[in-house]
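Lab notebook page, bench 4
Experiment: in silico fold of construct C2
Operator: M.H.
Input chain length: 294 residues
Purpose: comparison with the prior construct
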Amino acid sequence: MEANPESFDSKAAEAALRGGLNRISIGAQSFRTPVLAAYDRPHGPKEIEGAVSAAKGAGISNINIDLIFGFPGQQPVEWEEDLRRAIDLGPQHLSCYELTFEPGTALTLKKEAGRIKPEDPDICAHLFEKTRDICGESGFERYEVSNFARPGMACLHNLAGWRRFPLVGIGPGAASWSKKAHRKNIEDPAKWRESLRSGGGGLGETAEPTPLVSLFEHLMMGLRLEREGASLDWAESISGVNAFDLPGKPVQKLINRCLLEIVDVGGERFLRATDRGFPLLDRILEDLLPEKGG
């Protein structure tokens, strides 16, 4: 269950537990009031602490805290303080995302107006590696680009997505994936309910990616898993395309440059980024991106 700190109290936690939920992800983002205001977040540090306390008080120990780094002008010491403050709350999982400027948000509008500038990429790269160091010292292992977990506490739902397992989304706006097609339910709850009543199933959009796009999606998601990588056998079974047959042979070229490597796990081939390649994952994916119309 995703929870906002300002609205997740002991009653909400107890109701979640009664409903069968056993994992809570709390959208903290930052412990700094000015940063939270820039993100249009109505909560403060006390509400974050209260939400974690409410979850634990109800008997939910599997807690994730979401954080964002790379705020314009953010000093490394400020991010380290945020990260250590979250760790001190005793979560089992941390999601640490680099700031992205989403269309239409107040922060993006400020950037477009020239009032703020995105953080320097070199500083963001430093924060990315510093995050791994601090989390590692505290018993959290990075198992995906932005996700850290105590032993045995990696998020199963997220792993299913990164491994490209079939997923069923239930409710308004929920997304599903069934090997061959992406499906998204109608977002408006009233229209979604009406579609159900009329036999439409609540379905809004359906898209079937081409074989090359399907392969790329699998590689894009799987390569985010630092130690595991993407299963080439599973990718080929979904897309019908051998990754080594891509136009221009980008996979082999990236292997030759020591940015990607093939590992065998139980007789199954996995393609994963090397220690050198993992920080350059965005560039690697650009090389793997299918040409338009492919």
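Observations: The first strand starts at residue 2 and ends at 3. The radius of gyration is 21 Å.
Next step: discuss at group meeting.
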